[in-house]
Amino acid sequence: MKHFTQDENKSTMIKLDMNIWQSLINDSSKRKIPRYMHQIWISSVNHEEMYDRFQIAANSCIELHLNYNYTLWTHEKIKSWLTIYYSWFLPIYENYRYDMQRIDAMKYVLLFHFGGIYIDLDLKCKAQDLISAMLPLDKRDNEPDIILHMGAEGISANTDIMAAKRFHPFFKLAVSQLKAANRWFYLYHLTIILSAGPTFLYGIYRQFPFKNVFYYVPNSLLFGKLIECVGGETWHGQDTILISRFMKNKMWSSFMAFALIIILCVIFKILKKARYR
Q1: Calpha distance 119→227 (Å, rounded)
Q2: What is the DSSP code string of the chain?
Q3: What are the pLDDT digits (tens) for 106-163?
Q4: How far apart are CA 124 and CA 55, in angstroms?
Q5: Arithmetic mean of pLDDT, 188-214
């Protein structure tokens, strides 16, 4: 695939990618994020049909975004699409241990290839044109390259809702590091968040030198006013419950934050050694 080549110096290539990307995209693409909404449903053995509450939430987003292109990406649709456009990524996708890893990885691939907005199926839309609604008035004519919102602990970049311009080097970097990050971290929850989830993406964010391309939506604006969670967390396991209980205790919360910082440092070293794939 043309956008990814082997044996690249990461730091040099990020800067080169930004220069090329900024010079090649047209004026309209520079100003606006594509109005394309992506959602992903990958079924498991026990839950082949989408939960009703997810379908209701998805319908709310579709109805409020009739001027957006919309795709619900299923496992079969993803595999067919990857076979045509990203055949080199298909083995990476299939080699994940858990469906949630596949979902997280595909968020980055789809936002890189198409641009637009990704939103989890457990989020109900409450506003039209979410891309514009997430931005202050002075940023709506010339939209930022990437829209994110950060986790409360400052050690993760939430991946439940994200928006980006097409072929952006930030998501190129994310996709290029997924293979190297696909490791077992001894706990189910840690494996999810560190190999492809929010903590993985925060590691990519830390590596990316052009911080001015990001806009961070305040959680106080996002939740309750623009979107509403209808009850997700279907991927959570028993260790997630245990970790959550620890995090409610201040002493354990500090310990867990410290442990995650150490793990992040290890991840950064792994990703630093890895080359683009």
Answers
A1: 10
A2: -TT--SS--HHHHHHHHHHHHHHHS-HHHHH----EEEEEE---SS--SPPHHHHHHHHHHHHT-TTSEEEEEEHHHHHHHHHHH-TTTHHHHHT-SSHHHHHHHHHHHHHHHH-EEEE-TTEEE-SSSHHHHTS-GGGSSS--SEEEEE-TTSS-EEEEEEEE-TT-HHHHHHHHTHHHH----SSHHHHHHHHTSHHHHHHHHHH-S-GGGEEE--HHHHBTTTEEE-S--TT--HHHHHHHHHHHSHHHHHHHHHHHHHHHHHHHHHHHHPPP-
A3: 999 999 999 999 999 999 999 999 999 999 999 999 999 999 998 755 567 899 999 9
A4: 10
A5: 93
Kindly report the backbone phi and psi dihedral angles of residue 199, in degrees, each rounded to the nearest multiple of 5, phi listed first.
-70, -35
| Residues 169 and 37 sit within 8 Å (Cβ to Cβ) | no
pLDDT of residue 265: 64
- The domains of the chain are located at 10-273
Q: Does the domain formed by 10-273 have CATH 1.20.58?
A: no
Distance between CA 115 and CA 164 in Å, rounded? 5
Using one digit for the tens of pLDDT, what is the confidence trace for 226-274?
Answer: 999 987 665 555 444 454 544 445 555 555 665 666 666 666 666 666 5
Give the sign of the dihedral formed by CA 52, CA 56, CA 62, CA 63.
Answer: positive
pTM over the 0.85 mark: no
